[in-house]
Amino acid sequence: MGRIAITLAGGRYDRTRALVDGSIQPDGIDLNYIELPIEEIFWRELRYGEFDAAECSLGYYLITKAQGLNRYVAIPVFPSRCFRHGFVFVNKRSGIQSPEDLRGKTVGVPEYAMTAAIWLRGLFEHDYGVRPRDMRWVTGGVEEPGRTDRMSVDVQDHVLISDAPPGRTLGQMLETGEIDALIGPRIPSCFTKNPDISRLFVNYKEIERAYYERTRIVPLMHTVVMKRSLYERYPWIAQSLYKAYRESMRRCYAVMRDVNALPYCLPWYLPALEETLEVFGDDFWPEGIEANWSALSLLMQYSREQGLIDRAYSPEELFAPTTLTEFRI
């Protein structure tokens, strides 16, 4: 048997650079890495199952499990993780000055079930006492009208959700006051253009550091999945991909620490790196189950509370069993 050709769709990050440029080829695999915008990957993956393997919204992957869909199996790598306090935007005219002021307000979100929104709703409820049903929700495109969910998700019994009016974007609605706040994974263009639009957490970096020091969690956003039919035919592929992602991360660490010439065009890159090492330690973007299970367990708790999944899942139910333990010499 020769090498297996696999198409994997993912983002271009420092931590996947060696997979994108082909300098790492997973054992036994001819990898065709397709670099695409992450929203497009999720849409094509969850709607049509176009790729052999792909980066996947972690929240939506959990939802596929809850809906009994068994198309994919994940490997325990997490290409995207991100604190989300800095992604809550408000119209100053709404009177929102603290998270508690969100009660009774209308909040826009691109998709109710997106992972970033799950984390933020859990944060609002557990850290500030504001439950999802205490707010009204409007879904739609932030910059383009007509956005729809990647897959059908029914949570109407839990919260009041409506669609943005035809032809309207959430960014426009935030500026006019039709919605009071906006959350999501990107910074809306209106934030840089309209002085009435501000962050809810102005000092978000300090708040996020305190959150980490209290919880030891950096919220997980994405994982990597492969078609279950492919895994069942060639179970060794999961371990090959897992090893390749880990090696790409190792090379990323090496590049980041080589500061003879700054690897990124950020004038204060070195202080940022030194602070990261001080707070998070040497392995600040760890892969594998053990280092990430507490964060994944919390995401499952929030997803259950928000009516998106009906129970928590074990590592064996979520990830390829061949990736849950490693050989030792």
Blueprint (SSEs and pairs):
Layout: E1 4-10, H1 17-20, E2 29-35, H2 38-48, E3 53-57, H3 58-66, E4 72-75, E5 88-91, E6 106-109, H4 115-128, E7 136-139, E8 160-163, H5 170-176, E9 181-183, H6 189-193, E10 197-199, H7 204-215, E11 222-227, H8 228-233, H9 236-257, H10 269-280, H11 293-305, H12 315-318
Parallel strand pairs: 1-2, 1-3, 6-7, 6-9, 7-8
Antiparallel strand pairs: 3-11, 4-11, 5-9, 5-10
Helix pairs in contact: 4-11
Structure overview:
With 329 residues, this protein is of the alpha/beta class. The protein has helices at residues 17-20, 38-48, 58-66, 115-128, 170-176, 189-193, 204-215, 228-233, 236-257, 269-280, 293-305, 315-318; strands at 4-10, 29-35, 53-57, 72-75, 88-91, 106-109, 136-139, 160-163, 181-183, 197-199, 222-227. It contains twelve helices and eleven strands. The protein starts with a strand and ends in an 11-residue tail after the last helix.
Give a quick set of tags describing it.
alpha/beta; 12 helices; 329 residues; six-stranded mixed sheet; globular; five-stranded mixed sheet
Rg, nearest Å = 20 Å
The global form is: globular
Instruction: Give a short account of the largest sheet.
Output: 6 strands, mixed
What is the topology, as strand order, of the major beta sheet? 8-7-6-9-5-10
Topology as H/E string? EHEHEHEEEHEEHEHEHEHHHHH
What structural class do you assign from the helix and strand content?
alpha/beta
Strand content: 15-25%
Question: Termini, distance in Å?
Answer: 27 Å
Report mean pLDDT, rounded to a whole number.
Answer: 95
Low-confidence segments: none
Alpha plus pi helix count: 12
Helix content: 25-40%
Compute the number of strand runs.
11
